[in-house]
Amino acid sequence: MDDMKEEVPNTIVTKLSADVMIDILSRFPVKTILSFRCVCKTWLRIISDKDFANPHLSRSPPGILIKALPEGGISSIFHLFQIHEETGKTFKVERMEFVPETNLPATANIELMNSCNGLLCLSGGEFRNVIHVCNPILCEHIEIQVDDRKTCLYGNYFALGCSATGNQYKVLWTFYQNDRHRCPKAEIYAIKTGHWRSVGNGFSIGRLDFNTSLHGCIHWARYETSLECICSFDFESEQFKRLPAPPICDGNLDGFIRLGVLKDCLSVTVRKWDAPYEIHVWVMNEYGVQESWSKQILFKPDYHHFISYEPLILLRRGKILILLDGELVVCYNIEKIRSWGRIIKSENMEDTHAIAYNPSFVSLHHIAAGEEQVLR
């Protein structure tokens, strides 16, 4: 293939500096950039360089990754929908499909845990004793083994994160040692080191919502009918922390609470028993400061025959993407209080799971050089 990648003729494009070329190429959609790698050796080298990943990631449009298990199937297929906002009032959706043995590990029914900077954290193996860190865009993944003696423990949950400095990717594992001693334990796996180590007692993750990564931390909520607190784990200091909750702890919540990130701020979406069709979105404008919580969005979806409403991504011009019953994504215009169109519909699927996902060119060959093998 390298023989086919001839250098392009000496033109004004080839005379541009590497920094300028990175700035230009990183602005294109993922599919276009992938095709650019076949243009010439120079472009292949620029796109494959580790300095290309961050500029592209900062411009990567918001995306939704849906894991779907087809009816009667054993292999999961991931569907990526990227939202490209146009200069006018419209936007387009670019779709990609990730399949086992090509973009994903060749493991039946892998469980999607979370994502970080375009990398996926997947749980697999017969007893969920193998963690896969994967970049489906580059068709790369590594395997991390989990102690077989601990895989039968209670409340296992894994999450991938990156330190605030961006120098280290890590996998967090929370679990209970038995069903009576309700004190969750935690271990951390720093990629490149090849081993797990204890970080002591922590908080059980339970679930991660659509996108809760912010300032090198992941966030999740502890709640029943009231929001008790917001938990976080800092991948830089490797410490668990509690953040103040918004002033909605009135015992009237119906169990629907979702954390997310809207406009680079932590957000909490809630619904109450006495108003099941009203969606309240609170935003922490100053990270860690309780007084900075403000209720910025209140809307009443007109899809009353659905059970759950999950705000996913806040777009420009007052539009928000909403996941209905875990299978249908619609665009809702907050300012005009009406639905603006159907975006995604999962059909003929037995099981679906969706997370926020921005595809990237972060290569495991760069961040996991110490691992035994980067499979491609």
Automatic annotation (TrEMBL):
User: What is the recorded name of this protein?
Assistant: F-box domain-containing protein
Please name the InterPro entries in this protein's record: F-box-assoc_dom_typ1, F-box-assoc_interact_dom, F-box-like_dom_sf, F-box_dom, Gal_Oxase/kelch_b-propeller, SCF_F-box_component
Q: Record's Gene3D superfamilies?
A: 1.20.1280.50
NCBIfam families xref list: F_box_assoc_1 (TIGR01640)
Recorded source organism is Populus deltoides (Eastern poplar)
Where does the F-box domain start and stop, copy by copy?
Answer: 16-56
One Pfam family hit: F-box
